[in-house]
């Protein structure tokens, strides 16, 4: 299937594009979720829960930096990835970008559960990645994620005990679940790949089609093609469909055990699989294809405010090459 | 019933775990602890806590302080110039010790 | 124990919850520690938006960790205050929300730009640390124990704040200029951090006589100026002309108190300064919005339904 990918300078354009697309979906998810989690700092239900969620936020943000650092070897730095990237070129799931309504702790813990359950599965599928910098990162990230998942489950179980808690969880579930499904959508490769194309041949088949009349179609094709490459090159060892099905088989029974109604159309369940992600259950904006809710653009504006205000041209690092 | 015993040597110091006693109730536990754990070593105060009431979480259950690089949390990471206030110097040195103890460096 | 005995025995970490202490001591200690705890929370509230606005991932991480630490300090301090048996943490947080709880002057001012962050994270935290270091010898043992952990952690806050200042003052001309302007705006407030001169301080005498407070306002302000004027100059900040500060022959400083706005200071002390009221109100809204979570958990416990309670 694939040989180990060792030296980024020897990558074909297709390999680079697959790597960049994968790392962006990983890093962007963690980055934007962390950004949202920090909204709970000084606002959580108790001082102790404030500390705990802040910790999870720092973990996720640290993971974002770890993923983004994978691209440093390809000469893409934090400035390009965060502060000077077109917000429409971010590839995170819309689950992580939605704002929290004030006091909606049910949303916070449910979102965390939906995300962390998926995170656990995708990390498992990266453990044997053909690209060593990815595989090397998985162990450390995963042991932090275990706490997150346990933390989320503990809160869900407790909130679901009360009537108001369960009602609020149900509201949050109805709202969040379609967005959670976008975690398993394939990502459109970056519009302008920041990686210089060093080969003229062998990569043309997935170049973005700039013909506007067929834009949507070619985006979807390009996303499918690059997702195929991610698995074919062994960057990730499971397909998104497999991850999505496995995720559903974990989260649906758990949420139902809390007396919550999971908004999934069970009539679409196919042969041999218990659950499947279908187009009908997805929200309008998928995130993975660069379409985002308005909230993301506001968030991006806020988080780049200082960088723009001070006319910065670089993002200051305190730590060089973490975990290298 | 087992009671865990924490001893404070002198007023102002911390109570630290020093052992336990078997006792049927809190009163008896205090009396037994006073003799078993307070008769030789200097003691200002003892706490007794029912063993069953002690929750425990260990490094096997959770990665304390995380497994990824958290050096941004440590004073030692920052390279500033000029003489620092004595309490900042002290804090930094305590943090350096803690970092070493944690095996971060 | 009567008050005279307390005064006789008032040494570092002399009193613990096991001691039978007079009400005057308990109330004075509660007031002092509650003020300190409230200040941790309101400082964190003020700095929180800059987790998002920090101009790099690492700065964001450090800011998040710092705000997290401050909430942790609040947790420690409310417990130290609670252990005096006068007020519960819930009452103290309710008072903070409804505008009765008092906190440091600096945290009543709005903070609008990143260039202001070192004013809090370096200068105010540096000032706080000068005071906190002395409180490791306070007479209320739980307070002193809280200070041990606070002082251990706080060095990171001051160093990180200083690192931001260093970055700004070695940055572009615009950054240096904006930072100097922010410094001029915050400097008088920072001087007032230590309160009025000892003559005008109402609570000091009693707090000092029972060993709660270890240094006077003037002593702490001197210690701060002595350390932080050279630091400010080191990074190229110019000390504003006002308030006028004279260095005496013995190396201590005399601040021209008339140059400072004490009307504003005392309005703040009564929670009557408008921007501060907005901050109190904003935090109250946040606290009330999660009241349902606390109620849900309390009900769950009351019904004995807590999942895995036996763990």
UniProtKB/TrEMBL annotation, chain A:
Region listing for Disordered, in residue ranges: 189-220
Organism: Natrarchaeobius chitinivorans
GO biological process: phenylacetate catabolic process
Name of the protein in its database record: Phenylacetate-CoA oxygenase subunit PaaI
UniProt cross-references to SUPFAM superfamilies, sorted A to Z: Ferritin-like
Bias (Basic and acidic residues) ranges: 205-220
GO cellular component term, pick one: cytosol
Domain of life where this protein originates: Archaea
One Pfam family it belongs to: PaaA_PaaC
TrEMBL record, chain B:
Region (Disordered): 81-105
Biased composition (Acidic residues): 87-97
Pfam families the record matches: PaaB (PF06243)
InterPro entries to which the protein is assigned, alphabetical: PaaB, PaaB_sf
Source species, domain of life: Archaea
Signal sequence extent: none
Gene3D superfamilies to which the protein is assigned, alphabetical: Phenylacetic acid degradation B (3.10.20.520)
NCBIfam families documented for this protein: paab_haloarch
Protein name per the record: Phenylacetic acid degradation protein PaaB
Organism: Natrarchaeobius chitinivorans
UniProtKB/TrEMBL annotation, chain C:
InterPro entries listed in its UniProt record: Aromatic_CoA_ox/epox, Ferritin-like, Ferritin-like_SF, PaaA, PaaA_PaaC
Name this protein carries in UniProt: 1,2-phenylacetyl-CoA epoxidase subunit A
GO BP annotation list: phenylacetate catabolic process
GO molecular function: phenylacetyl-CoA 1,2-epoxidase activity
Recorded GO CC terms: cytosol
Gene3D superfamilies attached to this UniProt entry: 1.20.1260.10
Organism of origin: Natrarchaeobius chitinivorans
């Amino acid at each position: 299937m694939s040989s180990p990918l060792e030296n980024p300078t020897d990558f074909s354009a297709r390999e680079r594009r697959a790597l960049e697309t994968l790392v962006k979906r990983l890093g962007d998810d963690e980055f934007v979720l962390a950004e949202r989690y920090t909204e709970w700092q000084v606002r959580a239900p108790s001082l102790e829960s404030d500390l705990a969620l802040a910790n999870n936020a720092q973990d996720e943000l640290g993971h974002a930096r770890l993923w983004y650092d994978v691209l440093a070897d390809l000469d893409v730095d934090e400035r390009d990835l965060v502060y000077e990237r077109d917000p429409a070129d971010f590839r995170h799931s819309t689950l992580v970008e939605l704002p929290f309504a004030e006091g909606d702790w049910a949303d916070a813990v449910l979102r965390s559960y939906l995300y962390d359950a998926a995170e656990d599965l995708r990390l498992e599928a990266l453990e044997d990645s053909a690209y060593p910098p990815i595989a090397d990162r998985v162990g450390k990230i995963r042991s932090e994620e275990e706490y997150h998942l346990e933390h989320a489950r503990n809160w869900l179980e407790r909130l679901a005990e009360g009537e108001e808690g369960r009602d609020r969880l149900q509201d949050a579930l109805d709202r969040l679940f379609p967005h959670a499904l976008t975690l398993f959508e394939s990502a459109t490769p970056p519009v302008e790949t920041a990686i210089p194309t060093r080969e003229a041949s062998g990569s043309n088949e997935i170049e973005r089609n700039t013909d506007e009349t067929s834009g949507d179609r070619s985006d979807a094709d390009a996303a499918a093609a690059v997702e195929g490459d991610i698995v074919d090159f062994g960057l990730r060892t499971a397909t998104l469909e497999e991850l999505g099905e496995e995720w559903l088989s974990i989260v649906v029974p758990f949420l139902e055990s809390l007396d919550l109604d999971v908004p999934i159309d069970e009539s679409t369940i196919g042969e041999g699989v218990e659950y499947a992600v279908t187009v009908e259950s997805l929200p309008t904006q998928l995130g993975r294809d660069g379409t985002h809710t308005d909230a993301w653009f506001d968030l991006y504006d806020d988080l780049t405010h200082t960088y723009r205000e001070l006319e910065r041209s670089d993002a200051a690092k305190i730590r060089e090459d973490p975990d290298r | 019933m087992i009671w865990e015993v924490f001893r404070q040597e002198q007023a102002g110091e911390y109570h630290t775990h020093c052992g336990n006693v078997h006792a049927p109730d809190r009163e008896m536990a205090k009396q037994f602890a006073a003799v078993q754990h307070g008769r030789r070593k200097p003691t200002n105060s003892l706490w007794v806590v029912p063993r069953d009431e002690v929750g425990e979480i260990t490094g096997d259950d959770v990665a304390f302080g995380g497994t990824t690089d958290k050096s941004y949390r440590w004073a030692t990471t920052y390279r500033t110039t000029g003489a620092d206030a004595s309490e900042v110097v002290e804090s930094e040195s305590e943090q350096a010790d803690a970092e070493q103890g944690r095996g971060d460096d | 124990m009567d008050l005279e005995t307390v005064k006789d025995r008032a040494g570092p970490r002399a009193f613990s919850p096991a001691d039978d202490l007079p009400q005057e001591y308990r109330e004075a200690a509660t007031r002092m520690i509650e003020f300190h705890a409230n200040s941790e929370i309101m400082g964190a509230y003020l700095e929180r938006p800059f987790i998002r606005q920090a101009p790099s991932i690492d700065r964001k991480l450090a800011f998040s960790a710092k705000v997290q630490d401050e909430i942790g300090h609040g947790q420690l301090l409310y417990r130290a205050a609670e252990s005096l048996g006068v007020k519960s943490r819930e009452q103290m947080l309710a008072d903070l929300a409804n505008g009765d709880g008092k906190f440091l002057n600096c945290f009543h001012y709005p903070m609008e730009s990143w260039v202001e962050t070192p004013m809090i994270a370096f200068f105010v935290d540096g000032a706080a640390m000068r005071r906190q270091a002395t409180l490791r010898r306070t007479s209320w043992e739980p307070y002193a124990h809280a200070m041990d952990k606070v002082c251990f952690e706080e060095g990171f806050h001051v160093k990180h704040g200083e690192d931001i200042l260093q970055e700004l003052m070695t940055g572009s001309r615009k950054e240096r200029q904006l930072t100097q302007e922010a410094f001029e705006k915050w400097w008088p407030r920072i001087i007032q951090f230590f309160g009025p001169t000892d003559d005008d301080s109402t609570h000091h005498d009693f707090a000092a006589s029972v060993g709660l407070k270890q240094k006077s306002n003037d002593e702490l302000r001197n210690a701060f100026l002595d350390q932080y004027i050279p630091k400010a100059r080191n990074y190229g900040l110019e000390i504003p002309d006002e308030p006028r500060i004279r260095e005496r022959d013995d190396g201590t400083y005399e601040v021209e108190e008339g140059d400072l706005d004490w009307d504003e200071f005392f309005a703040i002390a009564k929670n009557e300064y408008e921007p501060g009221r907005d901050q109190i109100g904003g935090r109250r809204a946040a606290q009330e919005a999660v009241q349902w979570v606390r109620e849900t958990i309390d009900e769950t416990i009351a019904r004995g339904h807590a999942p895995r309670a036996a763990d």
